[in-house]
Amino acid sequence: METAEQRNDSTEEAGAVMSPSTSLLACPFCGATPEIKHIGNEHVKKQVCEIACTTFGCFAHQRVGILNGHGQTYEWAEQKCRERWNTRHNA
User: Fold this and answer.
1) Predicted structure pTM score
2) Mean pLDDT, 10 residues at a time, over the chain (91 residues)?
3) How far is Cα 20 from Cα 51, in angstroms, rounded to an integer?
4) Residues 51, 14: Cα–Cα separation, whole Å
5) What is the distance between the alpha carbons of residues 25 and 90, in angstroms, rounded to a whole number?
6) Which of 22, 31, 18, 19 is nearest to 88 (CA)?
7) Domain-embedded: residue 91
8) DSSP 27
9) What is the domain count for the chain?
10) Of 57, 56, 39, nearest to 48 (Cα)?
């Protein structure tokens, strides 16, 4: 039987990385830990980095996408997505 840790390792190898990140601020609405999702790969037209709250019913998320072959990398998209997620505005 496969453990949750083994499933995460095999998911990362398949290109669909979904892992909690300690360098991200908590959700601004509910305080939960966010997840980073890597959608797509270098073999498709578009890649997206999405950071989303893990609480059921909380729809806080941030997405940054790139078109492959247009000079930007997934690492750039992830960095921009992290910056946007961690930016808080005073109301």
Assistant:
1) 0.70
2) 40 41 83 96 93 96 94 93 90 63
3) 10
4) 19
5) 15
6) 31
7) no
8) P
9) 1
10) 39
Tokens encoding 47: 């890649």
Q: Is 23 helix (H, G, I), strand (E, B) or coil?
A: coil
> Does a structural domain hold residue 12?
no
CA dihedral of residues 43, 45, 41, 77 (deg, nearest 10): 140
| Enclosing domain of residue 27 | 20-86
Instruction: Report the C-alpha gap between 36 and 24 in whole angstroms.
Output: 9
Decide: 19 and 8 in contact? Cβ < 8 Å: yes
Question: From the CB of residue 89, how many other CB atoms can be counted at a distance below 10 Å?
Answer: 5
Q: According to the model, what pLDDT value does residue 18 have? A: 41
Residues sharing a CB contact under 8 Å with residue 75, sequence separation 6 or more, in sequence order? none
In the three-class reduction of DSSP (H, G, I as helix; E, B as strand; rest coil), residue 10 is classed as helix
Q: Which two tokens stand for residue 7?
A: 């499933």
- Name the residue among 17, 23, 21 with its Cα closest to residue 49: 17
